[in-house]
Specification:
101 residues; mainly alpha; 3-stranded antiparallel sheet; 65% helix
Length: 101
């Protein structure tokens, strides 16, 4: 099943951003577009990431290199949070086992 695609031109018009910015985000590997019939589309699943990057660029005036660094740090933070939750679950499991004996 293919996800819903949004024309990049529509996104650029709505957010008042140049298409070059979206292309640059893709060049940095931050988002992934699809090309169909010579038109670029953004999968719906990528929209929240794109909007986050737009806020970083427009509101905080962070350049593309900075956006890449922030994205990398946020991904690391998310990975660590998932690992912490996994470890908490494991500790809870062993605590329950210990209480049963």
């Amino acid at each position: 099943m293919e996800s819903k695609l949004i024309p990049v031109e529509d996104i650029c018009a709505y957010h008042h951003v140049e298409i070059n910015f979206i292309q640059s985000l893709e060049d940095f590997g931050l988002i992934h577009t699809k090309v169909k019939k010579k038109a670029a589309f953004l999968p719906m699943a990528e929209l929240s990431k794109l909007e986050q990057y737009l806020r970083l660029a427009q509101d905080l005036e962070i350049n593309l290199e900075g956006i890449y660094a922030v994205s990398h740090l946020l991904n690391q933070l998310q990975d660590m949070q998932e690992e912490i939750q996994s470890l908490k679950n494991e500790i809870s499991y062993y605590k329950q086992l210990n209480q049963q004996h």
